[in-house]
Amino acid sequence: MENKKILAIINPTAGRTKSQRGTFDIVDVFSTLGCDFDIKTTTKRGDATEFAKEYGMNYDVILCCGGDGTLNETINGVMCLPERRPIGYVPTGSTCDLATTLGIPSEIRAAVELIISDKRNTYDIGNFNDRHFCYVASFGVGSSFSYTTPQKMKNVFGKAAYFIDPFLCHPRTLLAGLKPVHIKIEYDDGIIEDDFSFGAISNSTSVGGLITFDRSDVKLNDGMFELLLVRRVKGAADAFKLLGKIQKHNYDGEQIMFLHTKNLKMRFDKPTEWSLDGEFGGSPVDVDFSISYKGIELFSEDNDLFCK
């Protein structure tokens, strides 16, 4: 990693200003290696994508310091480069699901040391119509919490903010989210058409810090999505019951379906809101998914989630 040119994209509002304090640690570590180190600080949504797209080819490594949303934007920018640069992730957000899956340390200096070790793995990137997502696209009950919960509340309460805000501040919105939508789903093994209250297309062992998958069911660079679908949820009590079954990996095949697929198309009977890596992904009626197989390189430890 010595004498490399590094572009650091930093979200200063992520994680109780942890990113701001961590900037000094990042600069300190890389400066000792003689690296040419430049910093771009985001001030609004979309900045990370534009920085990576506009400046990325001038650097050897792109470093992202922020939460899952900042990483999503950075990856969207890197995917536009004619020659994609490896990405180092320093997680400072309130959830950072992908960092948990990858085993990237939450302590800033430790995360930087991992990047310096130059340990890399390829990682599949999901394509959602004309956008990219790194670890999850979801719709239905609870999906909007990640982007409707105020940043100040996330900075103060961390993951707990995703429960506090909807249950105490917006209970009507929570109840409205239980209403199922009718979907026609085309995937590798056939067609499913029914009403569903929740769905997640993922490439991770953790979704929103709530849903976890068995590590044996997930590979991060196998060219396959994990698809979780939940049919009609009758109320808040039923939602908690189903969440408990999901956490125990109890997929009954009827109300809860868990599938692997490479190809996926979803047709809704009305516009439906989506969350992409915790950020608002629009309200399309038709969604075509595809995978950019081993689309990027991420600095991360070797583990059993990667196909060799």
Can you tell me the overall shape?
A: elongated
Category by helix and strand content: alpha+beta
The tally of beta strands, per DSSP, is: 17
Strand content: 25-35%
Number of domains: 2
Q: Averaging pLDDT over every residue, what do you get?
A: 85
Q: For the report, how would you describe the main beta sheet?
A: 11 strands, antiparallel
Q: Low-confidence parts lasting 5 or more residues at pLDDT below 50?
A: 153-171
Terminal-residue CA separation: 23 Å
Number of helices: 10
Q: Provide the succession of SSEs.
A: EHEHEHEHHEEEHHHHEEEEEHEEEEE
Look at the structure and give the CATH class of the largest domain: Mainly Beta
CATH topology of the largest domain: Tumour Suppressor Smad4
Helical content (DSSP H or I, runs of 4+):
25-40%
Just name the CATH architecture of the largest domain: Sandwich
Cα gyration radius (Å): 19 Å
Would you kindly provide a brief summary of this structure?
The protein has helices at residues 18-31, 47-55, 68-78, 97-102, 108-116, 145-148, 151-157, 161-169, 171-176, 236-247, and strands spanning 5-10, 36-41, 61-66, 87-91, 120-128, 131-133, 136-140, 181-187, 190-202, 206-207, 211-212, 225-231, 256-261, 264-268, 274-276, 279-280, 286-299. It has 308 residues and is α+β, with helices and mostly antiparallel strands.
Describe the fold and architecture.
- It is a single chain.
- The protein is 28% helix and 33% strand.
- It has helices spanning 18-31, 47-55, 68-78, 97-102, 108-116, 145-148, 151-157, 161-169, 171-176, 236-247, and strands spanning 5-10, 36-41, 61-66, 87-91, 120-128, 131-133, 136-140, 181-187, 190-202, 206-207, 211-212, 225-231, 256-261, 264-268, 274-276, 279-280, 286-299.
- Residues 153-171 have low confidence and may be disordered.
- The longest helix is centred in the first third of the chain and has 14 residues, at 18-31.
- The chain folds into 2 domains: 5-118, Probable inorganic polyphosphate/atp-NAD kinase, domain 1 (Rossmann fold, 3-Layer(aba) Sandwich); 133-291, Tumour Suppressor Smad4.
- Helix 1 packs parallel to helix 5 (108-116).
- It starts with a strand and ends in a 9-residue tail after the last strand.
- The strands form 3 sheets. Strands 5, 6, 7, 8, 9, 12, 13, 14, 15, 16 and 17 form an 11-stranded antiparallel sheet that branches. The chain has a 4-stranded parallel sheet with strand order 2-1-3-4, with helices on both faces. A two-stranded antiparallel ribbon has the order 10-11.
- Strand 1 (5-10), helix 1 (18-31) and strand 2 (36-41) form a beta-alpha-beta unit.
